[in-house]
Amino acid sequence: MSITERIGGILLLREESYKEAMERGTIAEAASIAAIAVAVSAFFGFIGLGFYAMRSPVQLFRRLTIAFIPIKFRVPIEIVFWIGWWIVWSLIIGGLSITLGGEHNIKGFMKLTGYSMFPHIFGVARIIPFLGRPIYFLALLWSLACWIYSTKTAFNLRAEKTVMVYVLAFIILILGGFTIMAVIRLT
Amino acid sequence: MKENTGNINYKIIVLAVATVVGLSLLQLYIANKMSSRIPRRRKDLPRRLSGYTPEEWVVRRGQNLLIASGPGGFVSVYGQDVNLLVERGIVNFNVEGEKLYVDVSLQGEAQISRKAFSRGYIVFSILHDEARYRLVIASPKAGYHVERVNGRVEISNDYLMIRISRG
Predict the structure, then answer these.
(1) In angstroms, rounded to a whole number, what is the distance separating the alpha carbons of residues A11 and A28?
(2) Cβ within 8 Å, pair B19-A35
(3) Which of B27, B38, B99 sits opposite A61 (nearest CB)?
């Protein structure tokens, strides 16, 4: 199975593609796929931001300072964020899945989730004013669907346990977010 | 689960590294190009602009900024991108060659909403070689000189920016 077939199968949630990717894929390859998708998305997101703001330099300046992300490093920061997200989130989901009785297969899971990051490439739509961001949001949901299917396949979990893993993971995410915000306010 | 670790696809890794590095550098280049149009730090501004009295700040024009003279009057400000229009024929306000940008959104200290400001008026007094300005927020309901606001004008070779500082 070629890499494009594998990615296509994973995007279409085909079980045989997931199994094949776990057997024959490598983490380096999955990470590369994730990095390419995220980098392309981030770059077009940056260009789209420019189109939004370029009508006036002052508007652009304001937008960039509000966004909290230094403009010059927007793309690398977005790449690092998503790759970090992939690693940390894989470990959290993996840990929860194993705790809830899943097989010990973090490595296989990380391969699958790396490929599951591919829908991020539809972030290129962010170059389109107004419509681009909703399209990107849908792509993120698509990626989430691939992640959920990856969890189910890699850890051999039943559907309800997979859902439970994600509910717990999102609770952790929200609590973590609140904690970070509280720390930022205190400091 | 058996792994095929010996079959690492180096092409895709090289492609990923090239994409990440290439696109990061490209956006850095574009950002540098764009940011050269944006005022960054106070020290980047011409030296003459550092001294001013709160109510009136005399600003020498930048080379590319030509403001047609007139004794003073109203310039209306509206819209998100803020166009300046000559109104009532009192003032001739014009920037040749370059657009004039007025930032009504940097209003952290201004306590004036964008909407209020967009209905308001900036009053410019233009002297022969310098632009003196007073900033007046006017409400159509209450007449024109309702509230006087001190502001700050930053001017460089290719932009002029007004910041409201305090009501």
Answers:
(1) 19
(2) yes
(3) B38
**Chain A closest CA to B42's CA: distance in Å?**
14
Q: Is B8 helix (H, G, I), strand (E, B) or coil?
A: coil
Domain ranges of chain B: 42-166
At B13-53, the pLDDT tens digits run: 999 999 999 999 998 888 776 655 444 433 333 332 233 22
Cα gap B74→A164, rounded to integer Å: 64
ipTM of the complex: 0.82
Element (H, E) at A15: helix A15-24
Confidence of residue B137 (pLDDT cuts 50, 70, 90): very low
CA gap A141, B119 in Å, rounded? 42
Residue where the block lists tokens 């969890």: A151
Length of chain A equals: 187
Residue range A125-141, pLDDT digits in tens: 988 877 888 999 999 99
The answer to whether residue A119 scores a pLDDT higher than 50 is yes
Q: Quick check: B1 and A58 CB within 8 A?
A: no
Question: Does any CB of chain B come closer than 8 Å to the CB of residue A127?
Answer: no
